Amino acid sequence: MRIAVDAMGGDHAPGEIVKGALRSIEYFDIEIILVGQPELIKEFLPQGELPAKVRIKEAAEVVGMDEHPAQAVRRKKDSSIVVATRLVKEGEADALVSAGSTGAQMAASLLGLGRIKGIDRPAIVTVLPTLEGGKLLLDVGANPDAKPEHLLQYAMMGSIYAESILGIENPKVGLLNIGTEETKGNELTQAAYPLLQKAPLNFIGNVEGRAIPYGQAADVVVCEGFVGNVVLKTTEGLAGALFQLIKEKITSTPLRKLGALAIKPGLKEIAKMMDYAEYGGAPLLGVNGISIISHGSSNEKAIFNAIRVAKECIESGFIEEIRKELPRFTVPQE
User: Fold this and answer.
1) At 2, phi and psi to the nearest 5?
2) What is the spatial distance between Cα 83 and Cα 96, in angstroms, rounded to a whole number?
3) β-strands 291-294, 281-285: how paired?
4) Residues 60, 37: contact at Cβ < 8 Å?
5) Alpha helix segments (H runs only) across the chain
6) How far apart are CA 37 and CA 78, in angstroms?
7) Is residue 248 exposed (0-12), middle (13-18) or buried (19+ Cβ within 10 Å)?
8) pLDDT per residue as tens digits for the range 310-324
9) Region 291-313: what's the mean pLDDT?
């Protein structure tokens, strides 16, 4: 099992990326292909030497976070994300992991790997921490606009991923909306509701945003990319602000500092539950290959877990499962 890692992608590349990759070979029976500029990668290798099961694939260019994704991918054929994607396309790697530009990774995956036949639009899926464990939200940014049939495809792919990777049996699928009533929502959600209702899914109806953090309503929450990205970033910001506020208030006086010592273990457990690095990354669903998207600020732990997710995706064969199940979700032509 070979996993290509974009060593140049991310806020902390290549250092944290290389460290996470090296850590992964200590735990998993895999081979790692570090894609990027060899002289920079070698700075973070023990004694500057490659360990067993690790090799470097040279890529001279890097796609910057501020570059237009599709244009950069077409122009920079020797960029780390393009080369890593090419390795998957040509069968030299079984999956790729990147913490670089999400837009560039999506463009490279669409151009290099193509879509699964029958999937109109791919979706970026993310695992959101909730009181009931990790739950899925998709799409979180691949497509700001979507059609009802796209939401149906997201629901199908999310359901298969939740069952194959998260181990959730018969996952509950909900449609993100402004109310739980069937008649609520805009034109998109109102048109998508009956499609989801008729589909061979465990569809539980509409889900309000406030229900997501509790994790009881649905295991898979479906929406278009514009709304999903706003939900994701609002959730991340709220969690960060809340922990900062708690830290400030429980350490504001000597007496409170004493009390903080007593609750410190519990706070650490909560922080771990809310830490994106515990989940690492998630695949771009709908493309014809495994392309794991990681957070731009991924550290060593996040990359380690992203590689773990890639390994689980390879082992589960969920892409083949999507191909097999897709005909059941085809929207009939009127």
Assistant:
1) -120, 130
2) 10
3) antiparallel
4) yes
5) 15-27, 38-41, 69-75, 80-89, 102-112, 148-164, 187-198, 225-250, 254-274, 300-316, 318-325
6) 11
7) exposed
8) 999 999 888 888 888
9) 92
* Residues 157, 163: Cα–Cα separation, whole Å: 10
| HSE (side-chain half, CA atoms, 13 Å) at 31 | 11
Domain ranges of the chain: 1-119+286-334, 121-280
**What percent of the chain clears pLDDT 70, i.e. is strictly above it?**
97
Which amino acid makes up residue 46?
A: P
Which of 3.40.50.20, 3.90.180.10, 3.20.20.100, 3.40.718.10 would CATH assign to domain 1-119+286-334?
3.40.718.10
User: What are the φ/ψ torsions at residue 32 (nearest 5 degrees)?
Assistant: -115, 135
Tokens of 162: 């939740």
**CA 20 – CA 301 distance, rounded (Å):** 6
Is the Cβ–Cβ distance between 284 and 105 less than 8 Å?
yes
Owner of token pair 């997710």 = 309
CA gap 238, 297 in Å, rounded: 17
CA distances from 217 to 132, 256, 308 (A): 10, 36, 27
Taking the C-alpha atoms of residue 75 and residue 318, their distance in angstroms, rounded to an integer, is 32
Q: How many residues does the chain have?
A: 334
Average pLDDT of the segment spanning 170-190: 95
- The pTM for the full model equals 0.86
The single-letter code of the amino acid at 174 is G
Amino acid at 215: G
List Cβ neighbours of 313 (8 Å cut-off, separation of 6 or more). 95, 165, 283, 290, 292, 319
Domains 1-119+286-334 and 121-280 share a fold: yes
DSSP classification of residue 64: -
Q: CATH says 121-280 is which class?
A: alpha beta
Cβ-contact 177, 184 below 8 angstroms: yes
Average model confidence (pLDDT) for the chain?
90
Cα(161)–Cα(15) distance, integer angstroms: 30
